[in-house]
Fold each of these.
Amino acid sequence: MALLTPDQIGAADDRRWEDVDVPEWGGTVRIASMSGTDRNAYQKAMLVLGSNGRPQGVDLSDQYARLLARCLVDEDFRRLYVTDKQVKALGTKNGAVLERLAGVAKRVSGLGEEAMEAAAGKSEPTPSDSSTTG
């Protein structure tokens, strides 16, 4: 098998998504995976930094709304919630619904507890099977 080029990687549509019925809201929402950039920004926004600039903890305020704001999209994959005010409004919805949808968002984005712990600097790096040095 030939190795991929940057153009081939860029052209690949690797988005994952699920359309989820939300009877409490009277319809269906589309939850799409975050891009690498969005995922990093989300994880960074969750961190509480100490005076030394190192992660000291995780800020869980509006955690589900902040995650869903990056994952709820329309049919053209444009985000539904962009502004801080919109995210705050989303956070006022039923917590059980937000938690259920956040579970889907985590799954399609490959986020788990270990990913959040790693972002907070609480886990050991995984040893690599191969070296990338040349």
Amino acid sequence: MLRIFKIVALLEGVSYLALFANMLLIKPNNIDLYKTLLFPVGMAHGLLFIGYIILAIMLKIELNWDWKKFGIILIASVLPFGTFYIEQKYLKNA
């Protein structure tokens, strides 16, 4: 399950950055492309975010993470580049 969590964390981080790129780079320049990309990118990010949270809860129980580590992993899901940091700091040797 840890391998699946790592994959979901990576995809969630990439989708978060893609959502930011969509909002910051594409939206001001091309309104039609912005509307076309917003729904699929936003939906993918939302599903990956939910999957990240559910898998983190399951791994907390399975690997007996302490509350501090679990909290940091959850907070990282709402920060840009946070999931990449978690993968390097907490999950690389797990």
Amino acid sequence: MSEDFDEPLRRQLDAFLDEHRRMLAACLDGLTEEQARRRLVPSKTTLLGLVKHVTFVEKVWFDEAVTGRSRAEIGIPRTPDQSFVLKPGDTVASVREAYEKACDESRSATASLSLDDLLPGNRRGPLPLRWVYLHVLRELAQHCGHADILREQILAA
């Protein structure tokens, strides 16, 4: 693919990722700690848990996949399900801060990479950054939808 095409595409993908990152962080705006932790579905999904999970997503795809470091080295759970689990000390402020830091680290980790660069640290084997961007964008979009529904239910109560 030509670099003339990839550069604008990269800017668009970065913009879409950042837009969804902002929307997920904003799902916690104005909520009490109790509201952010409220479970409205049988799964572990809460608004605070969603933001904690997408912090995990950032670290899996933009640390583990880029660097090849293990999840234990990074300090994240082994499985996606475990990433939703809230600890007693997790607060709206601390989870949001960790998420924003992870997003900043993701941007830094990929700044010098091209969309065709292969990321060596995925369990599936090397994947191009383009694939990772599209995968993360899809996941963030799904979680934004989950967050919208949960937030609407919480605010309607």
